[in-house]
């Protein structure tokens, strides 16, 4: 056990040295490649202003997203009314979508329980 801990410590030390040596180069390169997205001056006030802009832009997009939801919902209602004309392909797609939703639900439950399959931690 002690040898594994020493091994882990040496790997962590090597990783830390690599990041300290090459991290600034990568940081500068990343900033240079994405300079068109940087808002000048890069201050806290600018960040707060951008956060407010993002919040209110998302808030303004709610009516459009609500309209899209109701269009999709009406499409599903129409498909349900005319289910006799439903193709096997459409039913398969709907079944796969339902299965995917269930899988994401299960993954969320497992993550919420602290990555256990049997139950919650006491």
UniProtKB/TrEMBL annotation:
Keywords: ATP synthesis, CF(0), Hydrogen ion transport, Ion transport, Membrane, Mitochondrion, Transport. InterPro entries: ATP_synth_F0_gsu_mt (IPR006808). GO terms for biological process: ATP biosynthetic process; proton transmembrane transport. Coiled coil: none annotated. Signal peptide: none annotated. It is found in: Mitochondrion membrane. It comes from the Eukaryota. It holds the Pfam family ATP-synt_G. One of its GO terms (cellular component) is proton-transporting ATP synthase complex. PANTHER family: ATP SYNTHASE SUBUNIT. Belongs to the ATPase g subunit family. This is Mitochondrial ATP synthase subunit G protein. It comes from Penstemon smallii.
